[in-house]
Amino acid sequence: MKLAGFLLLPAGWLIVLCTQVLLAPGQNVARTGFVFAGVCVEALGLVLVVRAHILRRGHRG
Amino acid sequence: MTPDSAAALAGILLVPFAALGLALMNCGLCRSRNAAHVMMTSIAVLAVAAIAYFVCGFSWQGYPGLPVYVLRTGGKEWDWIAAQPFFLRKLPLEGSAASLAAVLGMFSAGIAALIPLGSGSERWRVRAICASTAILAGFVFPLFAHWAQTGWLAQLGYVDAGGASTIHAVGGLTALGIIWILGPRRGKYNSDGMPLAMPGHHGVYVLGGCMLAWIGWIGLNSAGAILFSAAHAGTVVRIAIDTTLAASAAALGAALTTRARFGKPDFSLSANGWTGGLVAISAGCAAVPPAGAVLIGLVAGAVVPLAIEQFELRLSLDDPGGAVSVHAIGGIWGILAAGMFAGQGVVQLIGVATLFGFVLPVTYGLNVLINRAVPMRASAEGERHGLDLHELGAGAYPEFLTHTEEFLQR
């Protein structure tokens, strides 16, 4: 779970970066939408990493 | 030297007060058996950070007008990393803007590296601290600072005059990774997973550290704004007012929040709120109106104590110095708030995405590797006796008899 979370974090960032490279500066709505999509992917990754940390703490007692 | 350069230099010379303030806060928030260890490792962190930044940090951070490596894609040029020679070669150290940026970067790298120290205190060994600091000050901080101050993020219009993201969010996210690797202090959580209170040993250090940090922050924000946001010397007046207002509103916000939560204002959480306000205003210190600074500080002051409480309770994060809440959450709030006032929230969001998508995985991964090579966590016995005796061989308060129950023969 932790590995998946840590892979989702850069994956979301790459979405954000690709938005800046691939979409023209005039396409503001699409750019903003993809930036938010990338941030959502990162948020999912962060949730997984945090959850994995809590579960590991639980196993240790 | 121009008036702007002189103002920047004056600001830079105040920055060590911020380092002293943070070190004192970290020291006051730990237990007395670890006090000398915290101060000793603070000096070690500043030393390693300065040398790492001298060796390679500035080479990768650079300054506008100095050589950079550019990636051309999609018909655009992306400035990814500076191309300065190592060891500050070819940089005339005579008061030019680039040389002032090198001094500010050296001090800022030390401050960024002091932030995780508060999170890992009482269980983080000296050798591992030095190795982690070298990575942070020599690679992670300079690279992100280059992106935010002169590189591709800056080209997009990213606003961070005083280092809310480059120094504080980077340090705070590194602190988060360190906490995940180290785990909580022994005895912090009971068998039901409930956190137990481990109060710091010296409230006066904590509150005195806050006041020293305030002086340092005015210098940090002023120098950063002049060198990286094209502010002029006169802007220092606004920066000093905004910085003070944000810290004041944050301290009052934190005091009110903790009074509402616990019946009385909590001094250590109020101190964290004060620092959170300083962190939050760093990004927009040169552009936000004074009323905006009060708003930014109030929100930071309300959020930081709640974040500290919830992170400890729900996320099992044992963070003695509150670095994740103060520096990561405060810094990210500051970046977003600066974007709201500048009317460019999306660019600021790209900066936040870079922090979580690049800085956090990289700094966590590198610290995991360090942990393999140099185990970070002190032994159970060392933790029980305190790292003063275990790692340094002498306590901070040798004439005091403390924690007697652990040394009495049974």
Brief digest:
Chain A is built from 2 helices and no strands. Chain A has helices spanning 2-22, 28-60.
Describe the structure.
The complex is a heterodimer of chains A (61) and B (410). By secondary structure, chain A is mainly α. Chain A has one domain. Helix content of chain A is 89%, strand content 0%. Chain A contains 2 helices and no strands. Chain A is elongated. The model of chain A has no long low-confidence stretch (mean pLDDT 89). By secondary structure, chain B is mainly alpha-helical. Chain B has one domain (15-400): Ammonium transporter fold, CATH 1.10.3430. Helix content of chain B is 69%, strand content 3%. Chain B has helices at 3-29, 35-61, 97-120, 126-149, 152-156, 164-182, 203-228, 235-262, 267-282, 290-314, 323-342, 345-373, 380-385, 387-392, and strands at 68-73, 76-82. A two-stranded antiparallel ribbon of chain B has the order 1-2. In chain B, a hairpin with a 2-residue loop joins strand 1 (68-73) and strand 2. In chain B, helix 1 (3-29) packs antiparallel against helix 7, helix 6 packs antiparallel against helix 11 and helix 11 (323-342) runs antiparallel to helix 12. The N and C termini of chain B lie far apart (69 Å). Chain A binds chain B through residues 6, 9-14, 16, 20-22, 31-32, 35-36, 38-39, 42, 45-46, 49-50, 53-54, 57-58, 60-61, and chain B through 73-74, 76, 78, 156, 180, 183-184, 189, 191, 193, 314-316, 346, 349-350, 352-354, 356-358, 360-361, 364-365.
Please state roughly what percent of the residues of chain B sit in beta strands, choosing from under 5%, 5-15%, 15-25%, 25-35%, 35-45% or over 45%. under 5%
Assembly status: heterodimer
Largest interface: A-B, 28 and 27 residues
As for the number of domains of chain B, it is 1
Reported for the largest beta sheet of chain B, the result is: 2 strands, antiparallel
Shape call of chain A: elongated
**CATH topology title of chain B:** Ammonium transporter fold
**Which strand order do you get reading across the main beta sheet of chain B?**
1-2
Mean pLDDT level of chain B: 94
Main β-sheet description of chain A:
none
Low-pLDDT parts of chain B are: none
How many β-strand runs of chain B? 2
CA distance, first residue to last residue of chain B: 69 Å
Cα-atom radius of gyration of chain A: 15 Å
The overall number of domains of chain A is 1
